[in-house]
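Record pair follows.
FIRST:
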Amino acid sequence: MNELDQINQNILREIVRDGRISNTELAQKVGLSPSACLRRVHDLERRGVIRGYRAVINPEYLGGGLIVYVAVGLSRHTKQEQQAFERAMSLAPQVRECHNVSGAIEYLLRIEVSDLEAYKFFHTEVLGTVPQVSSIVSYFVMSSSKDERG
């Protein structure tokens, strides 16, 4: 893995806080000239350290006011079953994140829907129809005191 010096770590910290920060302001915050700062940012992008920039949109404005984390166990643990499950989840617009994890379950999903009725539909008509699924445990987000996803 490529090591990052302290200046690059500072650049990344500031970009995560504000992806629209101007190069001039970023350079001031990390103690570089604007040209040196821009070279470093371009290098971080070229190396794949910075994979992209995106807008973080309030899910309520997109009809996604309810967030649910779902722990999913599969009935069989083969590569083919995992791939089939992942394909099914990639087609479900409610699934915002799908992570293959270690432990008692195989997958952790982050679901965004408008309300409980919409989640019930997803649980029954989408996730409940995937043949690989053997267990579903839902965790409803009550509030988020910290969320640094970008």
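SECOND:
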Amino acid sequence: MTTNNLLALWAEGRTRFTKLLDVVTENDLPKKLLPSPNSIGFLIRHIGDVELLFAKNVFHLNEVSVHAKTVIAQKDTGEWTNLNELKDYVKGSATILQQAIVKMKEEAWIQNITTKEFGTKTLAESLGRIVTHTAWHAGQIGIILKYGS
């Protein structure tokens, strides 16, 4: 398992999300699928927040500054309504997470890391967590786009 292979896996997995960003409009951002409390705008911001947290806390890119508003609030506050800002935010979070992945040495992927969120996993397994986190919320966005209001 090489860093380049894992980077390619992450990048491909993230396309589930990035392809949705191409079709989301600013009018879509407040849409929800009731009774779910989370809007599309919230979910986009949340994906970026968690990517930054992963870069900092899991991949130890210590220079990352993150104020994970969606994680702190633990609910949709209704403030995520500017599409350009959200797209810029998740573009930036992807760039930072990519930098964190690229800096990993091959032997690091089998080392364990422990977090309060998901316990002890290898770094490769932890990468699987962020890939599936993004895909999970991308699926929610897709369903809200189709059926939400």
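COMMENT: The beta strands are 112-115, 119-122.
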